[in-house]
C-alpha cells in the first residue's frame, strides 16, 4: 500500500418520523459515525494534522438541557475540530503506537424549543470551545492487507457549559471509550471493509447530578478502492445504551438510548505540491432512534502528514 493510501487511514474525525425523547443533551460524548474507512489502521511514523468539521441537525419531543426540560426541541451543532496525531518511529509490542489530541476549537450550537417547562417558545445560540479528547492507540498490519487497532480515548470537560437553556458546546463531565477496529482490503477486485466496536462510559455532570449510562457502538464502511486514490462506498453505525441513566437530575427515568445511522462515504488521497493529503466526507441519516436526538450528521476532514 502506498504512502498516500496509508495517509488516508489517518483522518480522525471528529451523530423515524416521530420525534424521540432525549436524556441529558440528547447525546453522549461519543459521536456515532466517528470512524469509517481505515478504522483499523494506525499510519506509519510521522506527525499528522487533521482539520475536521461536523454538522448535526436533529429533533426530540423532549430533552434535558442544562438541567431544564425542553419540549419539541431542535438542536443544530457545528464544531470545527483540529486533531494532531503523532506516531513515533518505534514499535511497541510489535505494533505502531499513536498518540493524539482533538480540540473542537470553534463549536456552534443552536437550540430551539417549541415549548419549555414554562410554556414559552425559546431559542438560543452561540459559539464556544468543545471538550478536548486525548487518545492512545496501538495498531498492527500484515502482508495480507489486514490491519487492526486498539484504542482508548478520554474526554476532558473543557467545553463551554452553563446551567439552564444554553448553547452548550461541552458536556461538563469526563468520559472514557475503549475500541477495537479492523480494516481489510482485497486488492482484486479492490474492495475495502472496515469496522470498529467500542464501549463508552461517562461520569457524573456535577452541575445537574446526571450520569449517562454505558453505551456500545459499532461502525462499519464498505467501498470500492480505485487506483487513483478514491474510495467510494457506504458507512453505517449502531449505538446502544446498556445501562440506565442515573442521578437526581435524571427526571425522565432510566432513558436508555439507541441510534442507527447509514449513508454514503468517500475518501480520496493524493499528492499536492509533493505533500500527501487525504480528504474524507460522510453523511448519515439516523433512524430507529430512542431517547436521543434524531436527525442527520455530515462529517468532512482534510489530513496531511508533516
UniProtKB/TrEMBL annotation:
Leader sequence residues: 1-22
Keyword vocabulary terms for this entry: Signal
Alphabetized InterPro entries for the sequence: FApF
Domain of life: Bacteria
One protein family per Pfam: Phenol_MetA_deg
Protein name: Transporter
Species for this entry: Mesorhizobium vachelliae
Amino acid at each position: 500500500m502506498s504512502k498516500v493510501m496509508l495517509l488516508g487511514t489517518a483522518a480522525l474525525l471528529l451523530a423515524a418520523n416521530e420525534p424521540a425523547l432525549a436524556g441529558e443533551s440528547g447525546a453522549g460524548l461519543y459521536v456515532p459515525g466517528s470512524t469509517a474507512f481505515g478504522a483499523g489502521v494506525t499510519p506509519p511514523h510521522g506527525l499528522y494534522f487533521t482539520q475536521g468539521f461536523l454538522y448535526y441537525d436533529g429533533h426530540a419531543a423532549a430533552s434535558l438541557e442544562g438541567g431544564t426540560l425542553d419540549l419539541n426541541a431542535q438542536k443544530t451543532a457545528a464544531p470545527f475540530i483540529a486533531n494532531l496525531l503523532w506516531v513515533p518511529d518505534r514499535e511497541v509490542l510489535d505494533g505502531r503506537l499513536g498518540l493524539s489530541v482533538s480540540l473542537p476549537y470553534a463549536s456552534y450550537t443552536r437550540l430551539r424549543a417549541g415549548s419549555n417547562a414554562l410554556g414559552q417558545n425559546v431559542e438560543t445560540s452561540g459559539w464556544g470551545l468543545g471538550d478536548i479528547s486525548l487518545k492512545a492507540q496501538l495498531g498492527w498490519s500484515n502482508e495480507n492487507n489486514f490491519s487492526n487497532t486498539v484504542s482508548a480515548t478520554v474526554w476532558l470537560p473543557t467545553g463551554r457549559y452553563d446551567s439552564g437553556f444554553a448553547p452548550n458546546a461541552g458536556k461538563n463531565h469526563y468520559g472514557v471509550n475503549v475500541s477495537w477496529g479492523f480494516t481489510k482490503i482485497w486488492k482484486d477486485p479492490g474492495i475495502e471493509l472496515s469496522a470498529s466496536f467500542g464501549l463508552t462510559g461517562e461520569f457524573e455532570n456535577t452541575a445537574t447530578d446526571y450520569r449517562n449510562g454505558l453505551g456500545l457502538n459499532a461502525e462499519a464502511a464498505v467501498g470500492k478502492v480505485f487506483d487513483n486514490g478514491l474510495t467510494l462506498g457506504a458507512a453505517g453505525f449502531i449505538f446502544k445504551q446498556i445501562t440506565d441513566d442515573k442521578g437526581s437530575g435524571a427526571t425522565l427515568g432510566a432513558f436508555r438510548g439507541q441510534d442507527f445511522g447509514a449513508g454514503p462515504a468517500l475518501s480520496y488521497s493524493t499528492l499536492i505540491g509533493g505533500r500527501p493529503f487525504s480528504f474524507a466526507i460522510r453523511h448519515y441519516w439516523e433512524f430507529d432512534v430512542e431517547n436521543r436526538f434524531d436527525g442527520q450528521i455530515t462529517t468532512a476532514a482534510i489530513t496531511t502528514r508533516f
